[in-house]
Hints:
Largest sheet of chain A: 2 strands, antiparallel
CATH class of chain A: Mainly Alpha
CATH topology of chain A: 434 Repressor (Amino-terminal Domain)
Oligomer: homodimer
Distance between the termini of chain A: 35 Å
Strand order of the largest sheet of chain A: 1-2
Amino acid sequence: MIYNRVKLLRTEKGLSRKELADAVGVNFQTIGYLERGDYNASLELAFKLADYFELSIDMVFSPRPFKSIAQELADAKRAAQ
Amino acid sequence: MIYNRVKLLRTEKGLSRKELADAVGVNFQTIGYLERGDYNASLELAFKLADYFELSIDMVFSPRPFKSIAQELADAKRAAQ
DNA sequence: TCATATTGTTGTATATACACAACAAAAAAT
DNA sequence: ATTTTTTGTTGTGTATATACAACAATATGA
């Protein structure tokens, strides 16, 4: 199973599933499936989503659980100084 | 269609399809299909392959055709100086 | 050259990604 | 409070990723 941050990224942008779905050209229910982890995105959809969020694929998808955003930010701050 | 560099990376390592397939846990014919562009890898397989080659996903897969290696090396050299 | 390994092709079968519909539950907006 | 929007659930259908088998074509190696 591949983990993803689709829900987090989508809600941060204040988008509904329908809006995100339209932006990447899939059915709005497909976004729901991904967010709930019912199945993985195809590689093609993964690229479209990463592209839409202007992130690299591994910022959006990962074979390992993502760190929390709090952790991510703390790490980023630590790395920067 | 997603482009990939699987064949290039595999042959550079001197691996047969069977060997690469075993390393990432798929049938050797699946590697053949990917190399010929018959279909895309799943996101899961894409991660395994990128992992195996110790590269990020977008070094192995891309929604746009890859630059030739010659071009890639020339660009890298240019960027470095 | 002959044997062996690798690759390409075709075909069948299965699992999974995705579309689409209907409806219930929950959240948001009025 | 009630209407509207968003989300979750279930179900059915289709396309595609993958497994596996058989065999032909190529390449590799002894």
